[in-house]
Amino acid sequence: MEWLRSKTTALAGGCLALIALEGYGLISMRSAVDEKIGSARREFQSARAQDESKMTQLASSLDVVTQRLGITTQELKESNVLTEKLKQENTQTAQRLRRELSAKADAKAVKQLNEESTAKLAEVQQDASAKFGAVSGEVQVVKTDLDSTRADLANSKKELGSLIAHNSSELADLRRRGERNYTEFDINRSKDFARVADILVQLRKADVKRQKFDLVIQADDMSITKKDRTANEPVTFLVGPDRLRYELVVNYVDKDRIRGYVSTPKDKTLSAEGPAGRRLQ
Prior knowledge:
The chain is of the alpha+beta class. It folds into 2 domains: 1-161; 168-280, Lipocalin. 60% of the residues lie in helices and 24% in strands. The longest helix is centred in the N-terminal third of the chain and has 160 residues, at 2-161.
């Protein structure tokens, strides 16, 4: 019995020891678990704190970026506006430069043209001056000759003014003086010419009331037309290479008829002279 009691006691003690051991183990395990849980919690809290710090930093950075992004967007808009403005200014500047260059080119061309025109004008003026000088000299010579001829004619008319015969009696007196030759004529209006001395005369018109007449004189293959002349008005003209002075005087103007005489130089040889007033066909 004692043995059984002892064995039971020993078994009970062993169980208690085992239970105690298991309890210790459980306590140890629980302590380890608690340690791990605490460590994990600390790590979690540390990580959470770090995460919260990072989140705070990220949020701060995000705010900065957001603000910066807003500024950048505004700057971008301003930059686009500035770019467009610069493009417009550049275009306007280019257009202005082209106009200025074109104007300068035109001005240069105009200047060159003006210089060429001035040179040509000077050349033309110089040439014209030379030619004008030559022509002026020739004109002066002709004017001198013309003045001399006019003076001669004036003197001749003055000299002959008192030598005009108005009728047959006065014409006879002139013939007696023997200074010139006188050939009488009596010409009717016709399409044919009448020979008087060594010239041809054609009556074109006779105005009895006004004592006016128109006629044509042919001498040296030249035709001389005299219009609206008056009776007893001497008609003077030059004939031949020596420019001999002839004078035609109409004393009477009748209907389609004139009568008068032609005065020629005394030394003039009348060629092919026929009867006064004879018509040539």
